[in-house]
Amino acid sequence: MSSAPLPKDLPESEWRAKLTKEQFRILRGKGTEMAGTGEYNKHQPTKGVYECAGCATPLYTADTKFDSGCGWPAFFDAIPGAVTQHKDSSFGMTRIELTCAACGGHLGHLFKGEGFKTPTDERACVNSVSIKFNEDGSAK
Fold first, then answer.
1. How far apart are CA 130 and CA 132, in angstroms?
2. Cys-Cys with 9: which of 5, 62, 65, 120 at CB 3.0–4.6 Å?
3. Structure pTM?
4. In this structure, are strands 106-112 and 122-126 parallel, antiparallel, or unpaired?
């Protein structure tokens, strides 16, 4: 068994070297990109996988992405086991934070019961900076 540290155990200095300044601010500092500015907001492929920008773990398949009009990429379901949920009480409200299960990188927030015509009626509102698209990728 390998004794190499899991990605979430990397020291801050290694994350800073690995990520761009904006990726570090969002993935490691739990930041948010401005609405409507992200590379994947209007991206609507028919196949492929969105992977974590920090560790390349497959997170969402293209067929779960939808246009919610929120200004960020929206997904109605994650690849099983790829995304973890945490209570987030920042900014005087309670939300559900989404993080990469493999490296702990901040992805965005989950909103439920908004009336979207999706199988789950959930909207994972994800920062484009937190993900990378792999057209040839598959849910591992």
1. 7
2. 5
3. 0.90
4. antiparallel
